[in-house]
Amino acid sequence: xxxxxxxxxxxxxxxxxxxxxxxxxxxxxxxxxxxxxxxxxxxxxxxxxxxxxxxxxxxxxxxxxxxxxxxxxxxxxxxxxxxxxxxxxxxxxxxxxxxxxxxxxxxxxxxxxxxxxxxxxxxxxxxxxxxxxxxxxxxxxxxxxxxxxxxxxxxxxxxxxxxxxxxxxxxxxxxxxxxxxxxxxxxxxxxxxxxxxxxxxxxxxxxxxxxxxxxxxxxxxxxxxxxxxxxxxxxxxxxxxxxxxxxxxxxxxxxxxxxxxxxxxxxxxxxxxxxxxxxxxxxxxxxxxx
Length: 290
Known about the structure:
The protein is built from twelve helices and eight strands. The chain is an alpha/beta fold and 290 residues long.
């Protein structure tokens, strides 16, 4: 193997021990360029790293015939690669309306519920998603705009929990597209990604290009910063927050009572302890918006 991108991703997987021998890895396959590249690379790596590969497609039913065409593309691609394939159809719009969520939040919740199901039933041991370097930079900017503290500015983690892995996090979007073009690998395009309506798409199409004019390596700089912030956050979570959490909260009759922090606890640490306690108690995420 001599291709620079292939070597880069393989080294990243090995460095972070994302895939272990004799495990089952399922690619979350949308049919878009990122997940198609991931499927292609992991198929190449499966004999080197000695794991079983499969793919799962989620039909969100948000774009009519296009959604069905994406599912059929993924099914055909996996058939040509001789990769086990499973598809799940979701009513994202209905769930969003019932739960009073945005379409993006509803889709994410249902996706991860499906991922948990195929982990629990033994279909796979881990789910590989196609998040890449530019996604991480966009997420950091989104969280900066919203106000989420250190945890949000730490960007997209290489792992989420025990079973979500992101092997492409050091690969830029340009690298993804260049490789697919060079290898003549087909993929589908979600036309909603080109509409500058959602906050993320405004960041993607308007803000990111300006920042990349100032620094062409902006996404890589974000990744380095995110890594440092994640290390700080993990250290605080392990060494400081347990003591703060123990003495600062009581929960009774459905109400969470917050005591005044000790004088030596800085606002940032206490604020993070409140955020974590609310998340763990009520399943809700707080932001730092004014």
